[in-house]
Specification:
The complex is a heterodimer of chains A (about 120) and B (about 110). Chain A is mainly β and about 120 residues long. Chain A is about 0% helix and about 50% strand. In chain A, the strands form 2 sheets. In chain A, strands 2, 4, 5, 6, 9, 10 and 11 form a 7-stranded mixed β-sheet that branches. A 4-stranded antiparallel β-sheet of chain A has the order 1-3-8-7, with no helix packed on it. In chain A, a hairpin with a 5-residue loop joins β7 and β8. The N and C termini of chain A lie far apart (about 35 Å). Chain B is mainly beta and about 110 residues long. Helices cover about 0% and strands about 50% of the residues of chain B. Chain B has no helices and 12 strands. In chain B, the strands form 3 sheets. In chain B, strands 2, 5, 6, 10, 11 and 12 form a 6-stranded mixed β-sheet that branches. A 4-stranded antiparallel β-sheet of chain B has the order 3-9-8-7, with no helix packed on it. In chain B, a hairpin with a 7-residue loop joins β10 and β11. Chain B is globular, with a radius of gyration of 13 Å. The chains are: A mainly beta (about 120), B mainly beta (about 110). The interface between A and B is medium-sized, with 29 and 27 residues.
Chain lengths: ~120, ~110
């Protein structure tokens, strides 16, 4: 049981390049999330997926796209990377079942991305 | 949307001393509250959570937190800090009607020998 896994762990891009960050969970959770973490700002939600086939914008979605490939996998794509996207990216998952139910999120180890 | 403030960016305590990390939230109804810990280069680990009921919640590693509605606070406490507690601590607030969990900026804890 690996929990939430992310690849790659580190990545360096040049401005304008594209890349996809991968995330997978083996806990049969229905909700998945992408956050970015910047110094002094905590974690900010980029996109989330409440269930397979649905995605929604979070607090800072500009410059990103996501795909919920299946229940296990949720990818984050940078189409044209910018230096402002230099950050640590975390994927998370939870067993959110809708309505007023709520459960804690489980986090992956993160991807450290540098855009030059 | 809900929001969280952690007033202390950095706290230093001596090993064996007590610890209190502050967290204030903004939300119109009863929030869902969390404390996470992040060791350097690692992901976030849940310490404890409050959804409803008893306002004093116990977590892992000897931590506890108290929900005070009148003060909009959810402060984290530990009676005796260990060197291994040095890390960054994040308070977070969720709401029952959305998936948008908001995090505070974090408090970095340094433990002196």
């Amino acid at each position: 049981n690996a929990g939430v896994t992310q690849t790659p762990k580190f990545q360096v891009l040049k401005t304008g390049q594209s890349m996809t960050l991968q995330c997978a969970q083996d806990m049969n959770h229905n909700s998945m999330y992408w956050y970015r973490q910047d110094p002094g700002m905590g974690l900010r939600l980029i996109y989330y997926s409440a269930s397979e086939g649905t995605t929604d914008k979070g607090e800072v979605p500009n410059g990103y796209n996501v795909s919920r490939l299946n229940k296990r996998e949720f990818s984050l794509r940078l189409e044209s990377a910018a230096p402002s996207q230099t950050s640590v990216y975390f994927c998370a998952s939870s067993m959110r079942t809708g309505g007023s139910s709520y459960n804690e999120q489980f986090f992956g180890p993160g991807t450290r991305l540098t855009v030059l | 949307a809900q929001s969280v403030t952690q007033p202390d960016i950095h706290i230093t305590v001596s090993e064996g001393a007590s610890l209190e990390l502050r967290c204030n939230y903004s939300y119109g109804a009863t929030p869902y509250l969390f404390w996470y810990v992040q060791s350097p280069g690692q992901g976030l680990q849940l310490l404890l959570k409050y959804f409803s009921g008893d306002t004093l919640v116990q977590g892992i590693k000897g931590f506890e937190a108290e929900f005070k509605r009148s003060q909009s606070s959810f402060n984290l406490r530990k009676p005796s800090v260990h060197w291994s507690d040095a890390a960054e601590y994040f308070c977070a607030v969720g709401a029952p009607n959305n998936n948008d969990m908001r995090f505070g900026a974090g408090t970095r804890l340094t433990v002196k020998p």
